[in-house]
Design brief:
CATH architecture of the largest domain: 3-Layer(aba) Sandwich
Radius of gyration: 24 Å
Largest sheet: 8 strands, antiparallel
Shape: elongated
Distance between the termini: 11 Å
CATH topology of the largest domain: Aminopeptidase
Number of domains: 2
Structural class: alpha+beta
Helix content: 25-40%
Strand order of the largest sheet: 13-14-12-11-17-18-10-19
Length: 467
């Protein structure tokens, strides 16, 4: 039953929710393993943000618990658990912002800041949905538990620890993707390929990317054995696509190490490499046209042919696809070539009906062609909840009733905390047609979308847990 009364309560909480998102965005909750301490396993920024959010939950009248700084939970009601899994950690801000990235600036009806959309805005929308249900005195037959994660953007160590301390809800949703609803999530590998070698004659350094799950927007190359004029001419003759540039750094003290080239591309989420322009790949393509040694030329050719070919695994002979979840994707997220050797990390999202070994064996075989060792850094198995399950149908009904839009379930390459729950799906907050700005400069959440998400989440909780 759609509850209009609930919407009125949420409209009354509008200013409070906006202010909470602004305040939460002001915490630079980026993982900082150089400054860990008891209660701050991922650094002080994440700890402070977690403590602040739990304190807000307490002020709103809920039971709260801090699980040793690894996660938090905010609860209402009693009975069987219904889980809502959000996260408070964010990826590094990166460059290219028009407003300070941790300001929570409001302009043109949007809240700007790293984490506004991924995932502080939606997590707080779920919290305020709980508040509206509480204020409306609506009886619930389940215990609603909002779980606050703190390591979603990295290795999910928070959830590994959480599972050792608390019961995991069987059923629930993660407000950390898009509407209408995501019922299938591809498996995710982060694979490191590396080898050691002696210093090369010309290639001193190729460095780009900070995270496997982000398309690198810049890449630095240091070269020896070329004149400035020669490289300047090569760059001027080279045709880069729109949005991609290659420039020689101006003279600096490091000149004796070599000439520095900076390639700039367009960042994007690693699950959608085709939406970005990978600066590392354009650097490698440019380098293929230079007069390098045989060893260097073979290395660059391999890199261009393997990780550098296609967005869907073509270069590694793993261009798989299936009906529930579509095509495999592959992103070259981190590149580090230096005088000691080569190391790079790829992010692979594989379809839900495939097994991990079907991915690992071909990639390892390709790596062996040039003596690279492969190491699995992380692996999240694929996850799939049937479209006709009560969870999916209840949530889609809430979405349609509140928004008036058609509800349907689909699959993604992104990995959300929905995978933590045996029956978990990703649900909002991005509406169909809204731009995908997570992990991008000027990340924002539209205020009207924030309020609408809050209303959908409140109705969803009612559909799943109402008496």
């Amino acid at each position: 039953m759609h509850d209009e009364n609930l919407n009125q309560h949420i409209d009354g909480l509008r200013d409070e929710l906006i202010k909470a998102v602004q305040d939460c965005v002001q915490f630079k909750s980026v993982k900082d393993m150089d400054h860990v301490s008891p209660g701050a396993p991922f650094g002080p920024g994440i700890r402070d943000c977690l403590e602040w959010t739990l304190s807000l939950g307490e002020q709103l009248g809920f039971e709260v618990k801090n699980i040793d700084g690894y996660a938090g939970q905010i609860e209402m009601g009693s009975g069987e658990l219904l889980g809502i899994l959000g996260h408070l950690d964010v990826v590094p801000e990166g460059d290219g912002w028009s407003v300070p990235p941790y300001s929570g600036t409001i302009k043109e009806g949007r809240i700007y800041g790293r984490g506004a959309l991924d995932d502080k805005g939606p997590t707080l929308a779920a919290l305020f949905a709980m508040k509206a249900l509480k204020d409306a005195n609506i009886p619930l037959k389940k215990k609603i538990r909002l779980i606050l994660g703190t390591d979603e953007e990295s290795g999910w160590e928070d959830m590994d620890y959480y599972k050792t301390k608390e019961d995991i809800p069987v059923q629930g949703f993660a407000p950390d993707a898009e509407f209408p609803l995501i019922h299938a999530e591809k498996g995710i590998f982060h694979l490191e390929l590396s080898k050691q070698f002696n210093p090369l004659p010309h290639l001193i350094r190729i460095q780009g990317g900070e995270r496997a799950n982000v398309v690198p927007d810049s890449c630095q190359v240091v070269l020896k054995g070329f004149t400035r004029e020669e490289l300047a001419r090569k760059l001027s003759q080279y045709t880069f696509p729109e949005g991609v540039t290659g420039d020689l750094e101006s003279l600096s003290g490091a000149e004796e190490e070599g000439l520095v080239l900076i390639f700039k591309g367009v960042g994007a989420h690693g699950s959608l490499p085709q939406k970005g322009k990978n600066a590392v790949l354009y650097a490698l393509q440019f380098l293929a046209g230079l007069d390098l040694s045989q060893e260097e030329a073979e290395l660059i050719t391999w890199l261009n042919n393997r990780p550098g070919t296609g967005f869907f695994g073509e270069g590694f002979n793993i261009a798989f696809a299936d009906e529930p979840s579509g095509k495999l994707s592959l992103n070259l997220g981190i590149m580090d070539l230096n005088p000691q050797g080569l190391r790079f990390v790829i992010d692979i999202r594989y379809p839900v009906t495939f097994q991990g070994d079907q991915i690992l064996k071909p990639v390892a075989a390709c790596g062996q062609e040039i003596g690279l060792e492969m190491k699995v850094l992380t692996h999240q198995k694929a996850h799939h909840v049937p479209k006709d399950s009560p969870l999916v149908t209840s949530l889609l009904k809430a979405y349609s009733d509140v928004t008036g839009l058609e509800g349907y379930a689909f699959a993604i390459g992104g990995g959300t905390y929905a995978k933590v729950l045996p029956q978990g799906v990703a649900f909002g907050p991005l509406l169909p047609g809204e731009p995908e700005v997570i992990h991008c400069p000027d990340e924002y959440m539209a205020i009207d979308s924030l309020i609408l998400a809050c209303k959908v989440y409140a109705q969803a909780i009612l559909n799943l847990a109402g008496e």
